[in-house]
Design brief:
Oligomer: single chain
Strand content: 15-25%
Shape: globular
Distance between the termini: 73 Å
Amino acid sequence: MSDENRFIYDASRGVDPLADLEEEQEKAAKHNRAKVGSARPSSLLYTYGPGAIMDLPQFTIMPTGLDDWDRIWRRRDSAPPQIHAPRLREVVRMMLRSPDVQLRPHPWQPKKHMRSAEGNDLGVPSRVFPQWLRCTGCDMLGLLAQFDYKNTHPFRTDLAVFEHAKCTGRAGDGARKAMRRTAIPARYLLACADGHLDEFPYDLWVHHGRPCEVAELPALKMEDRTAGKGASAVIKCASCNQRRPMGEAQGEAGQRKLPLCRGRHPHLDAFEPKGCNRDTKLMLVGASNLWFAATQAIIVMPESKEEKASDLADRVRTALGEKLGKWRHNLDMIRDLLDDRVDVTGLTDHDLEEVLATASAPVATPEEQEEQLRDWDPVDLLVPEWRYLLRDILSTRVEDPKSGLTLAARERGPQLRPEVGRVLAVERLRKVNALVGFTRIDDMDRVGDLPRRLAPLTRAPRPAWTVATEDRGEGVFLQLDETAVAAWEKRILDTDLWELHRASHERNFNRRFSETAAHVHPDTRLRPPRYWLVHTFAHILIREAALTCGYSAASLSERLYAWPAAEGRDPAAGLLICTTASDSDGTLGGLVQLSEPDRLQRLVASALHKAERCSSDPVCAMRTPQDPEDFLHGAACHCCVMASETSCERANRFLDRRFLLDLPGGSGLGFFPTHG
C-alpha cells in the first residue's frame, strides 16, 4: 500500500475498459467491445453511482471509484470539463476534507448520429459484480472465469452476455448434447453498516466454514426453483453432495452464522488495511437499501462581487499550484503562467496582488476542517438562495445570463389565500448536484452522519474531484407570511400533538442513530413545526400541479426553505416547486404557467380542498405516534400527501395534514383556516 493510498490495492488490476478494447482489436479474433450499456446522468448520480449495482439485460455491473475514471479523462489531451458552482464546491471540499476538489460531469459526449464516433473514448468504467454466476441451464455456480463473455455487436449492448459454453442441462432431463446457456448473477451478497460489500462465500457456506473434503475446487450448484421469494435457493456441492439452504442466513439467527466483514470496497477493488470485523447482513443484488447516494445540491444564484473574487482566487491557486509561492511577487511571470488558463487580463496590478494574496492564504488544518464540518448546518446552503429570492424585482422580469436564473414577478390573485405572501415565476434555473459518497443498509440522514459510515469514492485520502450533474428547468416559488407562520408555530410548540411527534422522533433517533445518540441531542435533528407545514404544503401542491402542468408528479421536486430565526440568518417559510432535466436545454414551461394569478389561486384552493379528505380517513386523520411507535409523520399517507422518492427531499418524513388544515374531528391546529 503506497503512502498516497489508504487501502490494500493491487494497482496492476486497474479498470481501463478502453485499453482492454484496444488489446482485443489487436488480436485476429473477433473482439469483445467495451461498452455494455448506458444510463442518464441523474441515474448515475442518485441510483447507480460508484459502488452501486446496475442491472443490465443479462448481468450486473458496478461503476468503479473515481480513480479509475481518471484513466478515461487522461485519454484526451484537453483538461476535463468542470461545472461552475463555487458555493457548492466549497461545501463538497469541506465534506470530502480535500481543499482542491473540482466538480466534473460524467465522461460523456453527444453524438451527431447513432453511428458516429464522437465520445467513443469516453464512458463510466465499471466491473462485473457480483462475480459469482449461475448457469440457467444446469444450475452450475461458478466464478466469472468459468464462463465465456460475448459482446460483439457494436450497436446492441443489450446482447452482451456471459455463457456456460458446455452446459448439459440438469440431472433428470435426459442425455443432452452440450450447448451454450446464459449465465446470470448469483444474487446474494454480504454488506455491513460501514459501507463495505462482499461476495457471498458460497463454497464456505455449503461446507459450514471448512474446505471441501473431496475436491480442492469443488463443483457448486445453486438450485433455485422459487425465484423472487427471498433466500429460497439451496447451495449444493456436487463433489461431496453436501447441501445447505440460503434460508439459514436470514433473520437474526441467520446473521450469527454469517462471517464477519472483511472490509471490502469492490468499487475500489480494495480492502481496509485493518479489516472491519463488523457483523454482516445478507443482501440481494437488487435490494433497494444496497446503495444510498450522499449528495449536496444548490440552485445556482447570481454571484456577489465577493464571491466572484473568491472564485477567481481559487482558480488561480488551483492553476498555479506550487508555482504560486515561487512567483508570488513577480506579476509579469504570474500573468504568463496564467495565460490561456485563467483570464486575468482585465485586472490591474493592484487587483491581481489582492487575488494572489487571497490565493496564498493557508488552507485549513485537519483539526479546523473537522471543527468546520461538525459545526456546519445544511441550511447554510439554502440561505443565499432564500435571500436572493426575497429581493425586490425592479421590473417585471430579471435575468442573469451566467447563472441561468430568470425570475418574473407575479401578482397575487384576488382569491389567493392571504397566507401566501409572495409569488415568483422561476422561468429558468440551473441546479447542480454533487456526489460526496454513499452508504449501505441505511441512508446518510439515518446513520447519524458518522464519517466512517460514508463510503469513499476514491482510494486517495484527498480526492481531486467528484462527479456532478447540471440540470436546467423551471419552477414556482411561494413565500408564506412570516408573521402568520411565527404566531402559528408558537402555538403548535405548546400542543400535545407536537409533544407526541417530538417523543416519537426521539425514539426513532435513539434506535436508528445508536452511536450518534450519545453525543447529539435528538431534538437538534427534529425539524421545526414550520418545516412540517411547508413540507406538507409542498406535497399537496406537487400532487395537484401534476394534473395540469404536463409533468408527472415524479418529475416535480421540492426545495424547502423553512427555519426559525438564528444567529446570522433571518427566519424562512417558503418553497420552490421545480422540474429539471439533465440531458436537454431545459423544460417546456408548463409548470411556470401555473404561477399566473388565476391558475395559481385555483391550484392552491383545489390542493387544500383535496387535502381535507383522505380515502383512509378517519384512520389517516387521527394517526398519532404512541409509544413504542417511532414513525415520523402524522395525518399523512400515500393516498393524500406522500410523494415519490424523486420528489421529496425527506423520504416522506415530517408530514402532517393537521398542521395544514383543521381536519374533520376538530384538530384546530391548521395554518390555513377552513372555510365553511
